[in-house]
Design a protein that fits this description.
Layout: E1 4-6, E2 12-15, E3 22-23, H1 29-63, H2 70-80, H3 83-88, H4 91-98, H5 100-113
Antiparallel strand pairs: 1-2, 2-3
Helix pairs in contact: 4-5
Length: about 110
């Protein structure tokens, strides 16, 4: 199995163990397929990285609140879908899920994060 990479700009095909790049015709179907594969792999990697960063931000914002553990965080996220929606929820809506004291604490803490 030969492992290759496609460098941007010059669109040169790099083969592992071969010091000389391979240049395909700019209009060739083979180059277009390799470009699509490269671009999709790049898009996938960026999307995954962004989701990790987003989850880490959500995790820290909620978990920094005393009384919010993994189960409470999951319950809130399942119900509201995002931290932004938790922040905009009324204290009464939060109280229905986590009780009055914790709802008050969540509103105060997330309000300070803005």
């Amino acid at each position: 199995l030969t492992v290759i990479g496609l460098a941007k700009r010059l669109e040169e095909v790099i083969r592992v163990g071969d010091p000389y790049p391979l240049f395909l015709d700019r209009n060739s179907q083979a180059l277009k397929v390799l470009q699509r594969i490269r671009d999709e792999a790049h898009r996938f990697g960026i999307t995954f990285h962004r989701s990790l960063r987003s989850k880490a931000a959500v995790h820290s914002a909620l978990r920094d609140i005393k009384g919010v553990g993994e189960q409470t965080e999951q319950r809130l996220m399942m119900h509201f879908g995002s931290v932004a929606r938790i922040m905009s929820a009324s204290e009464e809506e939060l109280s229905a899920l986590v009780g009055h004291t914790l709802a008050e604490r969540i509103k105060t803490q997330l309000g300070n994060e803005q």
